[in-house]
Amino acid sequence: MREAHPLERAVGIDSYVSDADGVGGRLRVAPEDFRVRELELDSLNVRPPDAPTGDFPNLVLRVTLRGWDTNDFAGRLSDELDASRERVSWAGTKDKHAVTTQLFTVNGGDADDVPEIPNADIEVVGRLGRTLNFGDLAGNGFRIRVRDPENPENAAAVTDALAEFGGRDERVGVPNFFGHQRFGSIRPITHTVGLHVVRGEWREAVLAYCGGPTEDEPEETQEGRAVVDEEAASADPDWHRALDRIPGYLGYERGMLHRLAEDGAETDEDWRNALESVPSNLQRLFVNAAQSYAFNRMLSERLDRGLPFDEPIEGDVVCFADRDAPEGLELPDVSRLQTATGRRVEVMGRHIERGRAFVTAPLVGTDTELAEGEQGDIERAVLDDLDLEPGDFDLPGNFRSTGTRRAILVRTDLDVDREGGTDGDGDADDAGDDLVFDFALPHGSYATAVMREYLKAGPLDL
After folding, report:
1. Is 435 contained in some domain?
2. Where is 289: in which H helix or E strand?
C-alpha cells in the first residue's frame, strides 16, 4: 500500500487505499471552493419562531458562514447577544476556510435580538425545547473545487480503486478515518493532550497544550510556547512571565496560564483546574481526540493486515443502519449492535453489501466492550500500546466518556465534474479546467478522508 504523509501518520493514518498518483491542483484558494451544508434531521421537530418560550426556550438559527471558525463565531454571537458562551450550541464543528451552513441554538434567545455579524448570513428558523447536541444532524453535503489540477485524468483510477474497496460499483468507499483537523491542522496535539488526561497526567496535559512550539506556527507563538517550556523546566517557575509572552490571540492558552499564575501549580487539582478553564466542548474534545487517534490506529492496522472493510470477519461488532436517514445517505446507528459470529457473519455480510449494516471499531470509553477474533486482537494491541483501558475514561466532569463505536467504512455517491476555472476573486482563469467534487457523508465523517485519496497531498494542503 502507498504510505501516507508523515503528518497523517502522526495521527494514526498510515496509508492510502488507492495507489494511483494524485490529481494535483490547489484547494481552498477561496472559501467558496469548499462548501459544506448540514443535512438536517427531521426528528429535531423545530417549532415556529413564535412558539412559547417557556416550552421551547431555544432559538434555532441557520447560519451560513464565510471564513469563520465555528467556536469563534459562537463566541462572537454570544458577545453580541450579551449572553454566556455556554448558551450557544451547535451540532457539528465546521472548517474555517470554507463557506458553511449549519444550525445553532441560543438558550433563552429572542428572534428580535439576532445581530448582524460580518460574513455571516443568519436566518431565524424557529424554536426547540432543548439545545442542539453534538451529532444532531444526519450528515453534511460537500461541494469541493480543486483548481488547476495537473493530472485530472488520475481521478478515474482513484474512483475505480475506491469503488472496489467499498464493495459497491456505484459508490466509492474509504476508511472512516478522523481527519487531521480533529487533532489540530497546524499543530496536531489535541490527542496528545487527551492521552495525558485519560492517564491522569494533568500537568503534562496543560504543558502539551500551552508549550511545545512547532515550526509551522508564527514566530511570536513559537517564542511564547518556548517560554512556557522554560518555566516548566524551572525549579521555581514564573507563570506570570509565561503569560506575558503568550500572544493575545491564544486565548485558551492564556486562560490556562492565568489560572496557574493566580491559583498556583502545586497539585494535580491545580493543573486540572487550569485545563478546565477552557470551554466545556474543548475539554470533551481533548478526550474525543485521544479516542479518535486510537480509532485511526485500529483502522490502519486492519488495512495493513489486508482485512476487509466492506464485509465482516468472525468476531466483528456490526451496527445497523439508521432507518430515518435521508435518501441516499448510509447512516450508521451505533445503538443497535451485534457481534458477527458463526452463521451471523454471512448474514451480516449481506446487510453490509446493501448498505443496511456496518463493521465498527470502538471509540473507547467506560462502557466499551471490545470485539472478538482478529479485530479484537487489533483493538487490544492498540490500547496496550497506548497504555489505555476502558476504565481509564472514568474521569471527572467533562472529561468523562462512556465511549461508543463507529463504522470503519464510509461510502458515498460521488460526482467529479470538469468546470471552467476562476481565480480567487471569481474572475475567469486561463490556467485550465477545475475538478469539482460533489458528495455527502454521514455526520462525524470527514471530507478529507475522501479528498486525500484524490490529491495524495499533505493534510495542510487539504
Report:
1. no
2. helix 280-304
CA atoms within 13 A on the CB side of 435: 23
Looking at residue 172, its amino acid is V
d(CA 334, CA 362): 10
pLDDT tens digits for 88-143? 999 988 888 899 999 999 999 999 999 999 999 999 999 999 999 988 999 999 99
pLDDT tens-place string over residues 281-320: 899 999 999 999 999 999 999 999 999 999 999 999 999 9
pLDDT tens readout for residues 93-106? 888 889 999 999 99
Q: What is the dihedral of CA 397, 403, 407, 408, to 10 degrees?
A: 100
Cell digits for 55?
A: 416550552
User: Of 19, 21, 69, 95, which is the active-site residue?
Assistant: 95
Instruction: Characterize 422-431 residue by residue with b for buried, 16 or more Cβ atoms within 10 angstroms of its Cβ, and e for exposed.
Output: beeeeeebee
Q: How far apart are CA 303 and CA 306, in angstroms?
A: 5
Q: The CATH number of the domain where 245 resides is what?
A: 1.10.1510.30
Distance CA 166, CA 161 (A): 9
Tell me how far apart the alpha carbons of residues 379 and 359 are, in angstroms, rounded to a whole number: 14
**Co-location of 268 and 286 in the same domain:** no
Q: pTM, whole model, 2 decimals? A: 0.90
At 216 the pLDDT is 87
Residue 384 contacts by C-beta under 8 Å, 6 or more apart in sequence?
none
Beta pairing, strands 34-39 & 99-107: parallel
SS3 string, 391-427, reads HHHCCCHHHCCCCEEEECEEEECEEEEEEEEECCCCC
Say how many domains are in the chain.
3
Q: Convert 325-363 to b/e letters by CB count within 10 Å (16 or more is b).
A: bbeebbbbbbeeebbbeeebbeebbebbeebebbbbbbb
What CATH number is attached to the domain comprising 115?
A: 3.30.70.3160
Minimal CA–CA distance to 412: which of 158, 141, 152?
Answer: 141
- Spatial distance between the Cα atoms of 110 and 60, rounded to a whole number of angstroms: 10
Domain-ending residue, one of 246, 278, 310: 278
Tell me if residue 72 is catalytic.
no
Do 292 and 395 lie in a common domain?
yes
What is the extent of the structural domain holding 79?
45-135
Regarding whether 383 and 294 lie in a shared domain, the answer is: yes
Q: Do residues 363 and 315 both lie within one domain?
A: yes
* Whether 294 and 381 share a structural domain: yes
